[in-house]
Amino acid sequence: MKHTRLLFLISLAITLLLVTACAGLETIEAKSEAVVESSADEHMDDDDHAAEDEHGAGEGNMDHLHVEAPDEFAALANPFADDHEAIEAGEETFNTLCATCHGEEGKGDGPGAAELDPKPADLSDSMMMSDLSDGYLLWRVSKGGAMEPWNSAMPAWESGLTEEQRWQVISFIRTFSENHDAMEGAHVEDEHADDGHTEDEHTEDEHDE
């Protein structure tokens, strides 16, 4: 009898140990899965932040990194806005000094841009240019890119060009985005005209039937 009771107690103890061990194993597995999921989430967050950072400085568009212009520039307005003579003078200056990097159409794809990091801004980007005040552009042209947050190779033109010449360049580079918008509008009108022509042909075919 005593022997049977002893065996029963030993079996019960072994069963309790197994149950405890299994429960502990499940807890460890659950914690391991939680750690793996947390690591995966952190990795995805890091990837997302990296993608955002790349987009923010992406394509090297230094003017996509906007900061507030200093007070001395912030409220300035271009005295030569829409002045055709100023635009022509600015075009000549731009083609001589700026097109090598910014490209003839201001897209940041000039022959000198290939080795630059960050790349020159796309001045034909109408959304970006509409956000930039005249004072901001004068500040950037005057002081160049050798400062935070750009750290670019863009020269500072405040000593190489007069203020009037810098305003002339700004008048000209404004035309890049304006021309881009005009071309987009013409393209849409052409598509609508083509659609109208197709509808007319379809109507004529119905009449012929």
3D architecture notes:
This protein has two domains: 58 residues; 126 residues, Cytochrome Bc1 Complex, Chain D, domain 2 (Orthogonal Bundle), CATH 1.10.760.10. It contains seven helices and no strands. Helices cover 67% and strands 0% of the residues. The longest helix is centred in the N-terminal third of the chain and has 56 residues. 22% of the residues are buried. It has 209 residues and is mainly α. The radius of gyration is 34 Å and the shape is elongated. Helix 6 packs across helix 7. The chain starts with a helix and ends with a helix. About 8% of the residues have low confidence.
Entry summary:
This protein has 209 residues and is mainly α.
Rg measurement, Å = 34 Å
Strand content: under 5%
Main sheet record: none
Low-confidence stretches: 47-63
**Structural class of the secondary structure composition?**
mainly alpha
Q: Can you say what the CATH homologous superfamily of the largest domain is?
A: Cytochrome c-like domain
Can you tag this structure with a few keywords?
67% helix, mainly alpha, elongated, 2 domains, Cytochrome Bc1 Complex, Chain D, domain 2, 209 residues
